[in-house]
Amino acid sequence: MHLNVVENLTGEECASKIFEMSGARFEPEVAAQLWAKIEQHKWLLSERLARDVGARTACIDFLENMDQAMAEYLSYQRKDLLNEMGAQTFGRDIWDTISDSQPPKKLVNRRIILPLTMEDLSRKHGVSPPRTIIFFGPPGTGKTHFVKAIAGVLSWWYIEIAPSMLMEDGADRLGANLRRTMEKVRQLDEVVIFIDEFDELAHCRDEADRLDKCITNEFLKQVPLFKNESKRLLLVCATNYIRHLDPALLRPGRFDCIIPVGGLSADERKTILEFYLSRINVGQIDADRLVAETARFTPADIQYLFEQVAQSAFEREVAANKDYRVNTQDFVRAMAGMRPSLTDEIIEEFEKDSLTFSRV
Ligand SMILES: Nc1ncnc2c1ncn2[C@@H]1O[C@H](COP(=O)(O)OP(=O)(O)O)[C@@H](O)[C@H]1O
Ligand SMILES: [Mg+2]
Questions:
Q1: Which of 82, 161, 203, 224 has the smallest number of CB atoms closer than 10 Å to its CB?
Q2: How many C-beta neighbours within 10 Å does residue 203 have?
Q3: In 3-state terms, what secondary structure has residue 161?
Q4: CA gap 153, 358 in Å, rounded
Q5: Residue whose C-alpha is closest to residue 328's, from 293, 296, 279
Q6: Final residue in a domain of this structure, among 242, 263, 284
Q7: Whose atoms come closest to the Cα of 262: which ligand?
């Protein structure tokens, strides 16, 4: 489907075409904009009536039903844009598999999900939920997972903008691409926009060269424009290296919340372990032992552990040709060959960063 078929006509030409077809007169600038919409309306009308509709019919129908036709035009344009930007949807199951006790979940629920889902009550109390947030923390702690969970629980679109996408046409187009992308995003509604590896885009200007400065500046310009939109939009940026970000971005007024995502408590590990245990062929498992022995594991480590255990159970069953149920020893064996991602040093750094940078 392609909707943006716009002939190269001048404003005057558009005005005279519209006048010829409908008898209505418009200023050239207005006519040029209307003509693009009439072209699309012609396409939409032809689709709906399952026959080719002429430009004259489309023009008259558009002008007679302007409000409805404009709404249809916007809705189709939005669909096209969502498609182009690779928008995805998620169910609320991701949210449900995160332990309620995880601090980022509690916070997001309190500050974002509840105010957005209880609009009357939040209006009554003058609460306006955050529009721009940062998640920071060591790799594999579930930052991306959180963003998908938020989109899922809100039933909003999820659009991921990878810094590499913005750099596609060469480094000198980066600022322009960022601006264009944000302009598109602002036309949408009910969208979670996620910029992963945010530090790649917005590192500290003191250390950066001229080009990076231009990106950070562009970003600083885009954030207020984004926050001024009345649409339901949430911008989430994630980084493993919060201290590499330009301090200008971290000042109040830019990001509403700066949220640490760190290691998991025993209770939180238990929730994730139960989730993954429910998806494999389990026998007798000492769940408390697993919880105790995964103290330095990130969610990514836990996922990897289960992949190892599942694969080996599968192979055993293939070899022996009889039901194989995973037991505690299978986990102990797999863990012996793994090094958990979180070390004392990483945790200490993260705790320092949490004190310095968190704003919740
Ligand atoms: N609460 C959770 N329950 C189940 N799996 C999780 C959870 N949090 C993260 N994961 C899984 O762990 C892996 C790493 O998480 P991810 O969100 O990619 O980490 P990050 O973005 O912080 O590097 C992902 O495959 C994700 O599905
Ligand atoms: Mg990630």
A1: 224
A2: 20
A3: strand
A4: 24
A5: 293
A6: 263
A7: 1
Q: 357 lies in a domain? A: no
Give distance in angstroms: CA of 226 to centre of ligand 2: 23
Q: In angstroms, how far is CA 35 from the centroid of its own chain?
A: 34
Shortest-distance Cα residue to atom 8 of ligand 1: 142
- 84: CA distance to ligand 2 center in Å? 22
Q: Please tell me the distance between residue 143's alpha carbon and the centre of ligand 2 in angstroms.
A: 5
Q: Whose CA is nearest to atom 13 of ligand 1?
A: 300
- Give residues (CB < 6 A) around ligand 1: 97-98, 139-145, 272, 275, 299-300, 303
Q: Domain check: are 270 and 259 in the same one?
A: no
Same domain? For 126 and 253 the reply is: yes
Between the CA of 146 and the centroid of ligand 1 the distance, in Å, is: 8
Ligand nearest the Cα atom of residue 140: 1
Burial of 41 (0-12, 13-18, 19+ CB in 10 A): buried
Give the residue among 132, 139, 160 at the shortest CA–CA distance from 236.
132
Ligand nearest to the CA of 136: 1
**Calpha distance 135→346 (Å, rounded):** 16
pTM value is: 0.83
Domain that includes residue 58, residue range: 11-84
Please list the pLDDT of the chain residue by residue as tens digits (360 residues). Answer: 344 445 678 999 999 999 999 999 999 999 998 998 899 899 989 988 999 999 999 999 999 998 888 888 888 888 889 999 999 999 999 999 898 889 999 999 999 999 999 989 999 999 989 999 999 999 999 999 999 999 999 999 999 998 888 888 877 788 889 899 999 999 899 999 999 988 887 665 555 555 566 678 888 899 989 988 888 999 999 999 999 888 888 988 889 999 999 999 999 999 999 999 999 999 999 999 999 999 999 999 999 999 999 999 999 999 999 999 999 999 999 999 899 999 999 999 999 999 999 998
What CATH number does residue 294 fall under? 1.10.8.60
Find the 196 Cα to ligand 1 centroid distance in Å. Answer: 13
Ligand 1 atom showing the smallest separation from residue 148 Cα: 17
Residue with tokens 């310095």: 356
Residues 19, 61, single domain; the answer is yes
Q: Specify the ligand 1 atom closest to the Cα of 272.
A: 3
The number of distinct structural domains making up the chain is: 3
- Measured from the Cα of 147, ligand 1's closest atom is 17
**Is 359 domain-assigned?**
no
